[in-house]
Amino acid sequence: MGLFGSKSVIGIDIGSHAIKAVELTPVGSRYRVLHSGTADTPPGSVKEGIVVEPQGVGAAIRGLLATSGIKANRVVSAVGGQAVIVRELKLPSMSEEELKQAARFEAERYIPYGVKEVNMDFDVIGETTEENQKKMVVLLVAARRETVDKHVQALEVAGLEPFVLDVESFAVMRSLDPQAHTNGQSEAAVLVDLGAETSDIVITEAGQLRLTRNVGIGGDALTRAIATRLELEFKSAEQLKEEKGIVLLEGEPLPDDRTVLSLHEVMLPILGDLATEIRRSLDYFQTRWRESRVGRIVLSGGTAKLQNLDRFLSLELGVETVVGDPFLSCDVAERVLPSAIRKDTASSMTTAVGLAMRGAVER
Description:
The structure is a single chain. By secondary structure, the chain is an alpha/beta fold. Among the domains are: about 85-145, Dna Ligase, domain 1; about 220-320, Nucleotidyltransferase, domain 5. It has helices at about 55-70, 95-105, 145-155, 170-180, 220-230, 235-245, 260-290, 310-315, 340-345, 350-360, and strands at about 10-15, 20-25, 30-40, 45, 50, 75-80, 85-90, 120-130, 135-145, 160-165, 190-195, 200-205, 210-215, 295-300, 320-325, 330. A hairpin with a 2-residue loop joins strand 12 (about 200-205) and strand 13 (about 210-215). The longest helix has about 30 residues, at about 260-290. The chain starts with 8 loop residues before the first strand and ends with a helix.
């Protein structure tokens, strides 16, 4: 996988419902967005974050590149959700060769299939002291080889040259970092990436990953609940959610539109479950890092656009919650991405932007 050629890099996020692409180039400490676009994922071709039909996905990516005006072919993409396992290990100091063996041995405890079936990588991210013994803090990442191969195959079918396969939660951290910390790097932040089928809850502090969890709550759960209650087809329920979905807040006037009231009642139990999962992550984080303080929750993904969701979670969790904008570190011309479209789509482009940033650094 070559690292040379065009200075621009494409980040491609392959989701269950949509494929997002962003092409950018580094300009000093910032980035310039050259092109961006989205396309529908062929139905059934991606399940639970895993590409199952590479040919169909590749054809859809090829069409997206054409309509978006993207000419570059060097791409960074990512696996995520239940397709990838991320674990923090604490190991005694050892040589790199010994670490490779130890990481593989430790991986067997976490991987529900044979180690020989996975692609695995690790990185030493720091050190700590436990019981007067210095230990290395190692971040282990593993994904099933078949999953990686099909993902790469889809990119190659599209005529692209994949040179980095990242992890979605890392891309989210990268693109939302400027918005994640309200007091420099001294406070921890919770990043909640709301996908169609599942959501990632990521806690980061001082530039380090502290916790990552994947939970089975996503935008589709809201849509299915609406479809069931109102006896609608899935697509009609999705459209209604986007047009009239509002999270109503206690103490504020109720709307006259009964459809808005009905949608709120249907969505509220699921959003309550989401708040519970975030709270569990916060509680676990605080038990491990007692001196740390979470200053902000940042939402991303398509469902982050649901009106008042940020205010609802802020009230439920007692932590300031905002909707993320991954383009804060980017210069975006109006002709490339009109401000109205940027406002509507920015949160859903978070992973794609973070992937393109990774490629710009490693080119």
